Amino acid sequence: MTFDEYNAKIEKNYRWNFFWMALDNMMFFFIFMGLSPYTILPFYIQHFTDSKILIGLLSTIYLVGTTAPQLFMANFLNKKKSRKRYLLIAAIIQRFGILGLFLLSLLQPRLNMSANLTLVIFFLMFTIQHTASGFYVPAWIDFMGKAIPRKRGLLFGLSNFIGGLMGLGMGGLLSYLLDLYPFEQAVPVIFGISLFASLVSLIAIISWREVVPPNDFFKENDKIIKDSYKVIFKNKNFMQYLLWRSFMVILEIATPFYTLSAIEHLQIEAAQIGIFTTILSFSEAVINPLWGWLGDRGGFLYVLKISGLAGILGAFLAVLFPNIVIYYVIFFLLGIMISGIQISSLNIIFEFSPSTKTALYTAVSQVSLTPISSVVALVGGFLAEHLGYSTNYWLAGSLGLFSLIGLSIFVKNPKARKQKKST
Predict the structure, then answer these.
(1) Cα–Cα distance list, 46 to 40, 67, 119 (Å)
(2) How does pLDDT run across 273-331, given as a tens digit for each residue?
């Protein structure tokens, strides 16, 4: 197959893959609402432990699990022509973890499991789910880069918007269930809906059509790969991005504790968790189309900086004005932050990376964040337990602001630089 024939097949399958990849991303967004490490999961496990460190472990596993395996997977994929089979394997393992969480929530009250056993099984399933995600992401983003050569911002913005609207229903249902039923009956329904959505997502992944590049592509790629790491680390703008982006991870020190601090300090009802989830979902839904448009037009560095600013404001508001109305604002800002960081962290790689090195750039980007990610949430748990939640919020806001200033001063817009080179 020639490159012209390869490109023709990509175009032939473009609309098909755009639809199914958008559906998968929509379901991912919806699943994230039902299994959010920022709202429902901290609420669930705080019924079995008072340890803030274990609450912080949620974010640690979520961040490290989805980043640490990526460098291994990127190197592995460099030697493979196909991507889809490895995507499917990782996707199936992800759903095994979600199935485990659902069965745990369903069987724990019926079997009267001890708190310790419940926590062990919970964190095991949660780790399986997100470690599989770490193996999934490099193959997925490489597949995305080839199958969707344009309008990726539109795909993410549109699918996240629709997924966010669905998440509104999830938040409303959660609020309704927690208002009328004990959490032992409410949580299995939410986890069960998330499991069903993950199976719809799996059908979408199975439906993707892969076009394997011609042999000449891999011969050319083999020559490039030998010096790939050297080339990446010589990319000074990318290195500056990784440095200042790593400080923004500190914003994660606050996110697992907003729900718990509201419960403890404001004495809110459990149904408020559903309202927080609804606001979070609404925020992500309405802002995602803007992120897609802004990223496609001006570049995803702008998206990252604006979303970081939202997280910084949320952290400062939590410590300065702790009341229920402000917490609604905080979760709205949190939705802006989460959606912006999610969509920019992946799509900005396409702006920094040549098309032949996307998986490797992705892995280096994600793994570079792992050292801080692995400790930041646990440190947050320690600080919350010994010094109070406000220490976390001050630290997150201050270092987040430091990161934003660094990104603004030292990192040049990679999209603009790439477009300038191509003209």
Answers:
(1) 10, 26, 10
(2) 888 888 988 898 888 888 888 988 899 999 999 999 999 999 999 999 989 999 999 99
Contacts of 321 (CB under 8 A, 6+ apart): none
> Which of 183, 44, 196, 191 lies closest to 119 in space, CA to CA?
44
| pLDDT of res. 193 | 92
Q: Count of residues for the chain?
A: 423
Return phi, psi of residue 38, to 5°.
Answer: -110, -20
Question: Counting beta carbons within 10 angstroms of the beta carbon of residue 377, is it exposed (0 to 12), middle (13 to 18) or buried (19 or more)?
Answer: buried
Q: Answer yes or no: are the C-beta atoms of 144 and 152 closer than 8 Å.
A: yes
User: What's the CA gap between 265 and 255, in Å, rounded?
Assistant: 16
Residue linked to tokens 């839904």: 285
Rounded Cα distance between 157 and 161, Å, is 6
Counting Cα atoms < 13 Å in the Cβ hemisphere of 114 gives: 3
pLDDT of the residue at 59: 79
Closest by alpha carbon to 415, among 234, 289, 294, 249?
A: 294
Backbone angles phi, psi at 66, to 5 degrees: -85, -5
Residue from 274, 217, 239 nearest 412 by CA: 239
Interior CA angle at 256 toward 253 and 258, to 5°? 100
Q: Which residues, given as ranges, of the chain have pLDDT below 50?
A: none
> Which two three-digit tokens encode residue 40?
């429902």
Q: How confident is the model over 329-379, as pLDDT tens digits? A: 999 999 999 889 888 887 898 888 876 677 678 778 877 777 777 677 778
What does the H/E/C string look like for 6-54? HHHHHHHCHHHHHHHHHHHHHHHHHHHHHCCCCCHHHHHHCCCCCCHHH
Cα(343)–Cα(337) distance, rounded to whole angstroms? 10
| Residues 6+ positions from 213 with CB-CB distance below 8 Å | 6, 81, 146
**Cα angle at 403 between 399 and 407, to 5 degrees?**
170
Q: How far from 125 is each of 21, 102, 212, CA to CA, in Å?
A: 25, 10, 33
pLDDT of residue 422: 59
What confidence score (pLDDT) does residue 423 get?
Answer: 55
